[in-house]
Target: Aste57867_23371 protein
Amino acid sequence: MAIPVCESNRYPRTLLRKQPSSDSSEEDRCSVFMRAPSEGASHENDLHDLPGGCSLGIMLLACLPRMAINMAWSAQWAVVSPLVNSSLDKNRWHSSLVDLVGPITGLVVAPAVGILSDHCTSKYGRRRPFLLGGAVLTIVGYVVLGQLKQTFFGTNNNAYIVAQHIRFGYASALIVCYVCINVGANIAQVAATLLVADVVGVHQVMAAAFTNMFGTLGDLVVALYISNADGGPSSPERDPSAFMLLLSIVMVTTVLPACLFVKEAPYVPCPSDFQWLRPHHAWCGAWHGFRRLPRQLAIYAVVLGLVHFGTMSYNISKGDFFGVVCLDGNSTNADKCNSCSMTNASYVPTRVELDGGTRSPVLPCDACVQSQRKYIAGGNFANGLLGLVADAVGLVYLGLLQPLVLRFGIRLVLLAATVPQMLFIAMVFAKSMLFAGVVVVLTALTGQTVSALQVPVLVSVIGFGEAQGLGIFLAAFNSAVCLGQLASLASLTIIRSTAQHGLTPLSAWLQILLGGVATVVAAIVLVRYFTLRIHVC
Model:
């Protein structure tokens, strides 16, 4: 079923030329490639002259890998990162360094993939080789990580007393798998996003909505799996092998159809393509991407960084905020009760660890005081039910995103989407579970909007076609997101280091407040400087 082209009278005359057919000679292709606005392209063609895109089925197949990629990111924060941090329990600063792996990897890998895929001349296309390679690398990380506990500690997961060098080997192997999954997921994410942008033609907003819907489904699958395990013997923290197998299966079943059925024409370079960019620029791609961003794209990159600073500020502080600030709980030694929940208070962990000859048993549930129980309940609420509701709301909202953009325009939709995250400022002062829950659910609209509209904004400015450098500019957006996340992690580190007793109420309170302030700044930037009208639907 072909997708009908959106009505041309909803948009001004486009600044982009029609892409030549695949039968055109190389000389024709090089002289009639689609021009970016800055290149002085003609205004003579209406929107219906733009590439109409693929069928709905091919569009869905191209968007499908985002489900597995989002599952990789969700698993990283919910399972892999806690496993790594728990293995480095005696080296807290090592744990802080490991948390930086994700953003730093995004800063280095994403621009490199964007540039290299733009120049790729493989007979299988420009994006699919990178998508498949990233998926394979991620699956290797999954498979190895799933077998690490069995390899190092055997079958006894509840009580193991091991030598220090074995624990060090386990931690080192975990970190290697963690980096492997990060690199693979970054490669796959950039390639998958570019593949969608290449094949859907003018239907960029619709495709972005489908892409984020599949991504949200992936988040929901991970959240439901972890919630169903509920700290029991089959939980990913105790036995990650089954969970890693699930992630591997989803990666194969989503990426393989896209690689097999979404066809790309091989790229034939011509002298006029990428005169300012070459493959050897890949390893400093973030700098080259930022340096070449047109004004409106640079403004959107600033908005992305500020909004993701706010999102990250909440995500890394939500357990402390609900547990300490809202419920007045106590985080001290609460990690020793982390297998106790308000609904499963009879479960008593039996794991015993040895540190230099001294056994340190995990406290049973009855040993946890009420303030610790409150802290655990707050963390469970933030990471469990609240996250599921927010994902569900975001999923519904994505179905409405395209009509909203068509009706109100991208600028107004973006401004409205920043309002929920600005309410972080009111949330930290209210200290109400109900109000905070409503605000957090609504912030799903903020994240989904700014993420989904990246490619439509990009294509509206630089145009379609092989000569536009889509990969490097999309990687610049990804780098802006990573910089926002790095700034958030750095600010939390500074806040915690200045606190007298570690995780005080002030840490989470101030971090989320900064996230709200950053979102206010993003809204001001949108109001004053963002004037783009997109030419896709």
About this structure: The chain has three domains: 53-266, 285-330+370-537, 340-368.
